[in-house]
Amino acid sequence: MATQPNRAPLVLWTLILVAAVANLNLSVANVALPSIGEAFDSSQTALEATQAGYEVGTRTQVEVLSARRALVQAQTNYANSRFDYINSIVKLRLAAGTLDRQTLAEVNGWLSDSEPAAPQPLASGASPRSDLLSVNRP
């Protein structure tokens, strides 16, 4: 009868790799979220200014639609970055073995709010720069 190879080292290296990737993604999201949030704010302001210009006759409908498209793209980018941030927290907790029901309930609350609430530091450790998600954005 052939012996089964010991898979423990492979599982351990897989967990280490998952944790390292999640940590890297979390760091990237920490850096990217503020600038993406500012781009959203800027797109919102640009749309409002373009609409005001259209109402007084200095802007065209095409310019308004272009500004609206830029705003939707900024909203999409913000939502994707926010998802990546939250997903990285969950993956990092899972790889570390600290993912519990309380954490999942808290993350679920972040995802189900119509106005995104700021993710607060999780009970068993501080999540980096969770205050970045507190801005009222879609």
How many domains is the backbone divided into? 1
Largest sheet properties: none
Give the helices and strands as they follow along the chain: HHH
Helical residues, percent: over 70%
Give the beta-strand count: 0
What general form does the structure show?
A: elongated
Number of helices: 3
Query: Which structural category fits the helices and strands?
Result: mainly alpha
**What fraction strand?**
under 5%
* Low-pLDDT ranges: 116-138
Please tell me the overall pLDDT: 78
User: Any idea what the radius of gyration is?
Assistant: 21 Å
Give the CA-CA distance, first to last residue.
60 Å
Plain-language structure description:
The chain has 138 residues and is mostly helical. It has one domain (20-130). It is built from 3 helices and no strands. The chain has helices at 8-56, 61-96, 101-112. Helix 1 (8-56) packs antiparallel against helix 2 (61-96). The longest helix is centred in the first third of the chain and has 49 residues, at 8-56. The chain is elongated, with a radius of gyration of 21 Å. The chain starts with 7 loop residues before the first helix and ends in a 26-residue tail after the last helix.
